[in-house]
TrEMBL record:
This is tRNA N6-adenosine threonylcarbamoyltransferase. Binds 1 Fe(2+) ion per subunit. It is an enzyme of class 2 (transferase). The lineage of its organism: Bacteria, Bacillati, Bacillota, Clostridia, Eubacteriales. It catalyses: L-threonylcarbamoyladenylate + adenosine(37) in tRNA = N(6)-L-threonylcarbamoyladenosine(37) in tRNA + AMP + H(+). GO terms for molecular function: iron ion binding; tRNA N(6)-L-threonylcarbamoyladenine synthase activity. Its EC number is 2.3.1.234. Its main location: cytoplasm. It is found in: Cytoplasm. Required for the formation of a threonylcarbamoyl group on adenosine at position 37 (t(6)A37) in tRNAs that read codons beginning with adenine. Is involved in the transfer of the threonylcarbamoyl moiety of threonylcarbamoyl-AMP (TC-AMP) to the N6 group of A37, together with TsaE and TsaB. TsaD likely plays a direct catalytic role in this reaction.
Length: 333
């Protein structure tokens, strides 16, 4: 079964053709990051307008790259929630138009479920059940993936998402948006123990995260130094911050795995590209004899191949939408 998948939840307009949930026939991404960088973050109004301009060309290219016409596609999958509402609406309405004109089924895909599905592409042998840490610009969740379309959230962030904390702290360190990527690079040359930073926990909720205090601590350090006319060593600051975020993520994720008896772990989302997070979890899992899965780096961030993968499993579980499908800015997994 070949699915044409569309993704427009944030600042990437993406289309892909995926066969049977695992084989990527084409994947095209038009990124708006250069433009949003001018403003230090995603400007929702601009994102929606750029999706409108890009979506036809990106979709056509995905079909061309796969060597297929719309008539040879079996279903249209689209990210419908959660995300920037104006951005999501572009993808959803375009997908509805394609479904209406071609008579193909329309499959709604949840953005976090699709991030998890990036692992099915990278690791064709991976099947639920497993435990997944989803860390992106908007979410930090620990999810029990009981089956492809049966998920249970064990923990989540109470404030900032891990990616959001990376981006805001990086901005205070003078790095361009999206700062998480840049901070990961700069941290490689720094001393992770140079600065003692808080490792916030949430009372009575051992799987939940809280990153805003950690982010504020680092921003205060920078501002206090500036007031004294000092400049802090950015590499050391980046390394210390990255370590603190990764410590919190790893600690709660490993605890959740132990408490639930999960021996198969996966990570997903933009922050799952983080070098330290990947190596630390790989090590933790190897030490315990657990299996560990992570998406290929180019599948960690937003893309449509992961939507095509999850779309396949949604379709075979009977999740098909009518032409009244709407986009939702917020929605549980
Ligand atoms: O999944 P994603 O592309 O979009 C959302 O659904 O939010 O995640 C984007 C986030 C940004 O906050 C970005 O800074 C972060 O992922 N990110 C990273 C790295 N690569 C991307 N954070 C830390 N280290 C990285 N290597
Ligand atoms: Zn995402």
């Amino acid at each position: 079964m070949r699915i044409l998948a569309l993704e427009s939840s944030c600042d990437e307009t993406a289309a892909a053709v995926v066969e049977d949930g695992r084989k990527v026939l084409s994947s095209v991404i038009a990124s708006q990051v250069e433009e949003h960088r001018l403003y230090g973050g995603v400007v929702p109004e601009i994102a929606s307008r750029r999706h409108c301009e890009a979506i036809v060309g990106v979709t056509q290219k995905a079909l061309d790259d796969a060597g297929l016409t719309l008539g040879e596609i079996d279903a249209i999958a689209v990210t419908y929630a959660p995300g920037l509402i104006g951005a999501l609406l572009v993808g959803v309405n375009f997908a509805k138009g394609l479904a209406l004109s071609s008579g193909k089924p329309l499959v709604p895909v949840h953005h976090l479920r699709s991030h998890i599905a990036a692992n099915y592409i990278t690791s064709p042998e991976l099947e639920p059940p497993f435990l997944c840490l989803i860390v992106s610009g908007g979410h930090s969740h620990i999810v029990q993936v009981k089956d492809y379309t049966d998920l249970h959230v064990l923990g989540r962030t109470r404030d900032d998402a891990a990616g959001e904390a990376f981006d805001k702290a990086a901005r205070a360190m003078g790095m361009p948006y999206p700062g998480g990527v840049e901070m990961d690079k700069r941290a490689q040359g720094g001393d992770p123990d140079a600065f003692k930073l808080p490792h916030p926990t949430v009372d009575g909720a051992p799987y939940d995260f809280s990153f805003s205090g950690l982010k504020t601590a680092v921003i205060n350090l920078i501002h206090n130094a500036e007031q004294k006319g000092q400049t802090l060593p950015v590499e050391d600051l980046a390394a210390s911050f990255r370590k603190a975020v990764v410590d919190c993520l790893v600690k709660n994720f490993v605890k959740a795995a132990r408490d639930t008896g999960s021996r198969k772990l996966a990570i997903a989302g933009g922050v799952s590209a983080n070098t330290l997070l990947r190596s630390r979890l790989e090590q933790e899992c190897r030490n315990r004899g657990w299996k560990f899965y992570m998406p290929e780096r180019n599948l960690c961030g937003d893309n449509a191949a992961m939507v095509g993968s999850q779309g396949f499993y949604e379709y075979i579980s009977g999740n098909v939408a009518g032409l009244d499908l709407n986009a939702c800015a917020a929605m549980a997994v």
